[in-house]
């Protein structure tokens, strides 16, 4: 197409009314969407792999792998204890850092926004 033809098409082209953006008021809601924290690295992986290697070596016989089973269960108990302590510390607010969604919701509900 020639330059003149493009000018004619562009000049006569129908431009619909554009959407006008309206700014909404800034206000906080009284609650936050529930978000789960992503878990960190899995615990007791080495103990589990040692236990499975022992089972494979002894044809899945528990009596030959009692020491490995005991070590794995001990590791699981320690990890569970650490998780519970961390959960209690986060709930009480002793651990600073990123606020959980439940903590943010409780704070926002204590100080509601005027409507």
Structure commentary:
This protein has 115 residues and is an all-alpha fold. The protein is built from four helices and no strands. The protein has helices at 3-12, 45-57, 66-92, 101-110. Helix 2 runs antiparallel to helix 3. The mean pLDDT is 83.
At a glance:
With 115 residues, the chain is mostly helical. The chain contains four helices and no strands. Helix content is 52%, strand content 0%.
**Overall outline:** elongated
Mean pLDDT: 83
**β content, as a range?**
under 5%
Count of alpha and pi helical runs: 4
Class from helix and strand fractions: mainly alpha
Separation, N- and C-terminal Cα atoms: 59 Å
Supply Rg.
Answer: 31 Å
Give the beta-strand count.
Answer: 0
> Main sheet?
none
Share of residues in helices = 40-55%
Detail the poorly predicted runs. none
Order of helices and strands: HHHH
């Amino acid at each position: 197409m020639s330059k003149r033809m493009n000018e004619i098409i562009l000049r006569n082209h129908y431009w619909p009314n554009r959407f006008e953006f309206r700014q909404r008021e800034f206000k906080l809601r009284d609650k936050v969407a529930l978000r789960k924290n992503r878990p960190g690295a899995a615990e007791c992986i080495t103990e589990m792999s040692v236990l499975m290697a022992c089972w494979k070596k002894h044809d899945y016989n528990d009596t030959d792998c009692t020491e490995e089973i005991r070590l794995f269960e001990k590791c699981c108990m320690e990890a569970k204890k650490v998780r519970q302590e961390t959960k209690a510390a986060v709930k009480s607010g002793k651990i600073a850092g990123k606020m959980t969604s439940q903590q943010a919701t409780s704070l926002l509900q204590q100080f509601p926004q005027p409507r």
